[in-house]
Design goal:
mainly alpha; 229 residues; 0% strand; 50% helix
């Protein structure tokens, strides 16, 4: 069972898809760059964390296209083949945000079954969501909605005649919503690219891990931790 803070790790993966669809409809108007010429190019490069899209590279040169920085893209199903820059950025936005949720969910599965019992919640993590008291569930839902609205307003263009609710802003770097309270973001472009590749790869592993734990509990209806010993 888990405390009130860690409960969100279990709730977020199940609610994120539904809340994202609702949140994107309420996005703010698109931000237009006011700089021109060289100044505009410099501002755009800074907003993209030093990443300059390169058609000759896998996924336009986004860090983490393969299994690490600088490695070739691993895409046997061809999901990124023939995609435009806008589509590749949108796929990376989805990948990195789901990876972050999965990393929290993975921790939530293990900590939530570690012996802490707020609200009388107990048992496998798969069975804990429905045990959350309604007021706490509502509070978490509102918090998640707020986070998604902020992300949408920073990264997405408001739907219009020429755009849909999945159109990213030109100057937006996928996943970089400006939330860094611990100031962990690397200062140099090279270090940022390295950290980004690490985050993407760990997020992919977490998505597989979280899916595996969910599937295991659906099959045997037992907690994860006792099976580790």
């Amino acid at each position: 069972c888990h405390n009130s803070f860690l409960t969100i790790f279990i709730i977020m993966p199940r609610l994120l898809t539904l809340l994202t669809s609702a949140a994107l409809v309420s996005m703010a108007s698109a931000f237009a760059l006011t700089t021109t010429g060289t100044a505009r190019a410099t501002a755009l490069n800074a907003a993209m964390n030093g990443w300059v899209p390169d058609e000759s590279k896998d996924c336009f040169g986004l860090p983490g296209a393969g299994f690490g920085l600088g490695s070739s893209a691993f895409d046997p199903a061809g999901f990124s083949s023939g995609r435009s820059l806008e589509e590749v950025k949108r796929l990376r936005e989805s990948e990195i945000m789901h990876g972050r949720v999965a990393m929290m969910a993975t921790v939530g599965y293990l900590v939530g079954e570690s012996g802490i019992h707020p609200f009388g919640i107990e048992g496998p993590a798969n069975d804990q969501l429905q045990q959350v008291p309604l007021p706490m569930f509502a509070a978490f839902s509102v918090a998640i909605m707020g986070c998604e609205l902020i992300r949408a307003s920073k990264g997405f263009v408001a739907p219009g005649a020429d755009t849909d609710f999945q159109t990213l802003r030109v100057e937006y770097y996928p996943g970089d919503i400006g939330f860094d309270p611990l100031n962990l973001k690397p200062k140099s472009d090279a270090n940022f690219a390295k950290r980004q590749a690490q985050e993407v790869v760990n997020g992919r592993l977490a998505m597989i891990g979280a899916a595996g734990m969910c599937a295991q509990e659906l099959v045997n209806h037992q907690t994860i931790l006792p099976l580790q010993f």
